[in-house]
Design a protein that fits this description.
128 residues; mainly beta; seven-stranded mixed sheet; four-stranded antiparallel sheet; 11 strands; 0% helix; 46% strand
């Protein structure tokens, strides 16, 4: 049974930092693209960041570029999202996602439909 389990969410003041982790079990994602998405109340789930299989290629939504950093430790089968300079508009449930197949050396995707495996989400709340 494949599981992605997020952790590290919480309540933080604007300007603060949080580091999210996503631990995978049941299969290795070492050769697969992974991503972070978020969903605020009343809004659709949206892309935040994505990373290729070895961490050599990344992509960010314009709203988080320069503030968030996605990384991975394939030896630990774990994905990370370092979030700095947090803003109230970053408040959402954050989800990690994993692709089911290797699709190329520099491949990663912004599309929800590109990912087969999803975590249950972790709440991030930023107060002003």
């Amino acid at each position: 049974q494949v599981q992605l389990v997020e952790s590290g969410g919480g309540l933080v003041q604007a300007g603060g930092s949080l580091r999210l982790s996503c631990a995978a079990s049941g299969r290795t994602f070492a050769s697969h693209a992974m991503g972070w998405f978020r969903q605020a109340p009343g809004k659709e789930r949206e892309f935040v960041a994505a990373i290729n299989w070895n961490g050599g290629s990344t992509d960010y939504a314009d709203s988080v570029k320069g503030r968030f950093t996605i990384s991975r430790d394939n030896a630990k089968n774990t994905l990370y999202l370092q979030m700095d300079s947090l803003k109230p508009e970053d408040t959402a449930v954050y989800y990690c996602a994993g692709d089911i197949n290797y699709r190329g050396r520099d491949y990663h995707s912004r599309q929800l439909s590109a990912y087969t495996y999803w975590g249950q989400g972790t709440q991030v709340s930023v107060s002003s």
